[in-house]
Design a protein that fits this description.
Layout: H1 8-17, H2 21-39, H3 47-58, H4 63-74, E1 83-90, E2 96-103, H5 106-119, E3 123-124, E4 134-143, H6 149-158, E5 163-167, E6 170-175, H7 180-189, E7 196-203, H8 211-226, E8 230-235
């Protein structure tokens, strides 16, 4: 089974406790706008936009905010033009990190992230030197909530998922990007509603670290996550 490289624990805990909903909604709005700009504002014809809207709804983002973000992406409303960038990083202890950011000023964002790294013993890596350690995969997470674990695993197998693993009471299912939507729909047909369905960078060979090393990295991850342009943080930590 593959290692769970996404720093999901920190992000999910923070999202649940963060009282500053405006910051969360701002990040979600950027994702929605970029998705709408790429393949149009109709979620039925744009899987990425549909997933972004579902994520925003689960975060209780107001409908008006969602619609405004879509219109900014399609050009129906004026607003900043955002682009996605991937920043490759070596963190403390040489841990490999990928940061997904959405920005309207690439140079500013890179400069700000360099500042964060300098304060937390990290450094920017050259293009391609970190990304090769990861692969993009569709990632569907289902909370068992007392459900039949064997039944959940059977759905994953029958839907053609590539891999799966349990993290406490959460089943993480990995699928190819082409099959991700089908896997998600198969769970929904069986009334197993996924907690999330996203495209993530998954480490090919996760590494073990000590508790002391993890503490140093948590400080870096928290600082990166606080920066508005940062959307997702991935690492090769097991």
């Amino acid at each position: 089974m593959s290692g769970h490289s996404h720093w999901a624990g920190i992000k999910h805990k923070k999202a649940a406790m963060d009282a500053k909903k405006g910051k969360v909604f701002g990040k979600l709005a950027k994702i929605i706008s970029v998705a709408a700009r790429e393949k149009g504002g109709d979620p039925s014809m744009n899987p990425r936009l549909r997933i972004a809207i579902e994520t925003a709804q689960k975060a209780n983002m107001p409908k008006d905010n969602i619609e405004r973000a879509i219109k900014k992406g399609t050009g129906e409303l004026e607003g900043a033009q955002f682009e996605e960038i991937i920043i490759e990083i070596y963190g403390p202890e040489g841990v490999a990190i990928l940061v997904e950011a959405i920005t309207d000023n690439k140079n500013r964002t890179i400069s700000e992230i360099k500042g964060i790294l300098s304060r937390h013993n990290g450094k920017m890596a050259s293009e391609g030197s970190v990304k090769w350690m990861f692969a993009q995969r569709g990632t569907i997470r289902v909370n068992d909530e007392g459900l039949d674990k064997d039944a959940l695993e059977l759905v994953a197998i029958e839907s053609g998922a590539d891999d799966m693993e349990w993290n406490d009471k959460e089943l993480t299912v990995y699928a190819s990007l082409e099959n991700m939507e089908n896997v998600k729909e198969e769970f929904e047909k069986k009334n197993f509603i996924p907690e999330s369905a996203t495209v993530e960078w998954v480490a090919q060979n996760p590494v073990e670290i000590t508790d002391a090393q993890r503490s140093k990295l948590e400080n870096l991850f928290e600082a990166l996550d606080e920066y508005d342009d940062v959307q997702e943080i991935y690492s090769n930590i097991k």
